[in-house]
Amino acid sequence: MTGGESAPPDAGGDAVQPFPANYRSEIPAFLRSYLNNPVGLRDAMMAEPVQREVAGRMRFVSCLRFTPQGGRPQDIAIVHVNGRLDRVAGNAQELCAAAVYAPFPELEKLSR
Asked: pTM to 2 decimals?
């Protein structure tokens, strides 16, 4: 088990997980409501979803890195279940250790 997280009982089972095809549009939409202030993000980068073990199950994980307005850089790991965005993982540093980041300007355009 990774990071001490437990999976909800209906978290997609152990079946082979499909690639999250709509992750590039789902992530900005989710972060608009997840972040207290999504305006003014800088240096936004994302790693393509890769399979990682999360709570004892293989899941696709997207890794994000950005700097909020007036804040310090942040890393976030987003877990996808059954091809859809499911939740933010609590152990981004561990899940994203070997991530290869590329610019993700969609995050820098977020508004309230």
From this structure: 0.83
